[in-house]
Amino acid sequence: MTIRLAVIPGDGIGPEVVTEGLKVLDAVSARFSLQIERTEYDLGARRWHATGETLPDTVLDELRAHDAILLGAVGDPSVPSGVLERGLLLRLRFELDHYVNLRPVKLFPGVRSPLADIKPEQVDFLVVREGTEGAYAGSGGFLRRGTPQEIATEESVNTAFGVARVVRDAFTRAAGRPRRKLTVVHKNNVLVHAGDLWARTVREVAAEFPGVSVDYCHVDAATIYFVTDPGRFDVIVTDNLFGDILTDLGAAIAGGIGLAASGNINPQRTTPSMFEPVHGSAPDIAGRGLADPTATILSVAMLLDHLGYREASQAVEAAVAEDLLERSTAGRRTTAHIGDAIAAKIVG
Ligand code: NAD
Ligand code: IPM
Ligand code: MN
C-alpha cells in the first residue's frame, strides 16, 4: 500500500512540528509496512517574498494528485495579515472543497485542563466546523476608506447546499457515537437570515436521523458551557467563524493548543483531504524547539484514519496517549524530544 502524501510545512513553527509528524509517520510506515511517497511543497512566507506567489495553479493541480495533505501552519509577521491565510490556507480549503473541518475536543488522561476537577470523560466531543462558506467566503469592502465616515463590510455566505451537506455529515457522525447527540451552534437571535437557513436545514435533515437528539445553543452561551459543562456536548455543528473561535477554546479546555488536531475533509474523497494542527505559526516561539508537536502527530492519526488505516491510526493515538500520561514526570522537553518519544513507542 502506498500513500501519496503532499507536505506543506509552511511558516513559523510549521516546519518544526511537521518534522515530528513525519518522524511518527516513518515509524508507522516501518511497523505497518506502509509505503509513503512524500512530496514537500515550498509554500508560505519564503516563497511569497521570493516570487510573490501564494498558491500557483500548477502547484494546486499537483496537490490534487495526492491521497492527502499534511500542513504545518501558515502566516508570518513579515507578510501582510491575510495574504497567506487567505491566499494559501483558505484557498486550499475552498478549491479542494473541504467542507467538513473536523476538530475533536478530547481531554486525554493525565493532561491538565484549566477547568477544576474535570475528568477526561467530561471533555470528549467533536466539532464539525463548516469549512467553505460563512464569513470566510463572503465579499467585503470599504466605503470612504481612511475618512471618519469609513464603512467596512464583511458578508457571510450560507447556501442551502453548503449548510445541508455539513449538517448531514454531523448527523451521520453523531449517529455513529454512543450518545447520539447533536448540538447546533449559531446566533439565530441576531443573524436571522443565516440562522433561519441553518435552523430549517437542521429540522429537515433531522427527519433522516430519528435516533439522534438535537439541541440548539447560541454561540455566546456555548462558550459558557465549554467552560462550565463541556460534558453536555457530543457532536457540535456550526458555521465557519463560530467553529474557528470555539475550537481554540476547545483546545484550551482540553489541555492546550499544542494538542489540538484537525482534518479538512472532503467526505466524497474527490479531492485530497488536508490535516493540520488547529494552531497557527506561533511566531513568538518559532525556531526555539518550544513548540509542542502533539497536535500535528494527532493530525497524522486523523489522516491515517481517513485513508482507512485504522490500526495505524490507533497506534499513533495510543502512543500519544501513553506519552501524555508520562508528561507530568518527564520534565520539559523540546519539540524533537516529544516526537522521538512518541515515534519510539510506535516502533516498539
Ligand atoms: P497561534 O496559534 O500561532 O498562537 C497562539 C498562541 O499559542 C501563542 O502563544 C503560541 O506560542 C501558542 N502556540 C501555538 N501553537 C503551539 C504549539 N504547538 N506549542 C506550544 N504553543 C503553541 O495563533 P496566532 O498567534 O493568533 O497566529 C499566529 C500566525 O499564525 C498568524 O499569522 C495567523 O494568521 C496564523 N494562523 C495560522 C493557522 C493555520 O495555519 N492553520 C491557524 C491559526 C493562526
Ligand atoms: C484555523 C486558522 C485559520 C482559520 C486562519 C489562519 C485562516 O485560525 O485554522 O483555525 O481561521 O480557519
Ligand atoms: Mn483558528
Low-confidence sequence ranges: none
List the total number of helices. Answer: 11
Structurally, the number of domains stands at 2
Basic shape: globular
Fraction of residues in H or I helices = 40-55%
Give the strand order, joined by hyphens, for the main sheet: 2-1-3-12-11-4-5-10-8-9
* Nearest-integer average pLDDT: 98
Structural class: alpha/beta
CATH homologous superfamily descriptor of the largest domain? Isopropylmalate Dehydrogenase
Bound molecules: nicotinamide-adenine-dinucleotide, 3-isopropylmalic acid, manganese (II) ion
Order of helices and strands: EHEHHEHEEEEHEHEHEHEEHHH
Top keywords for this entry?
binds manganese (II) ion, two-stranded antiparallel sheet, 10-stranded mixed beta sheet, Isopropylmalate Dehydrogenase, 348 residues, single chain, magnesium, alpha/beta, 2 domains, 12 strands
Quickly describe the structure.
By secondary structure, the protein is of the alpha/beta class. The protein is 43% helix and 20% strand.
SSE blueprint and pairings:
Blueprint: E1 2-10, H1 14-32, E2 35-40, H2 45-51, H3 57-64, E3 68-73, H4 83-95, E4 100-106, E5 124-130, E6 140-143, E7 151-154, H5 160-175, E8 181-186, H6 192-206, E9 213-218, H7 219-228, E10 235-238, H8 240-253, E11 261-265, E12 273-277, H9 294-306, H10 310-330, H11 335-347
Parallel strand pairs: 1-2, 1-3, 3-12, 5-10, 8-9, 8-10
Antiparallel strand pairs: 4-5, 4-11, 6-7, 11-12
Helix pairs in contact: 1-9, 1-11, 5-6, 7-8, 9-10, 10-11
Nicotinamide-adenine-dinucleotide binds near residues 17, 74, 279, 282 and 285.
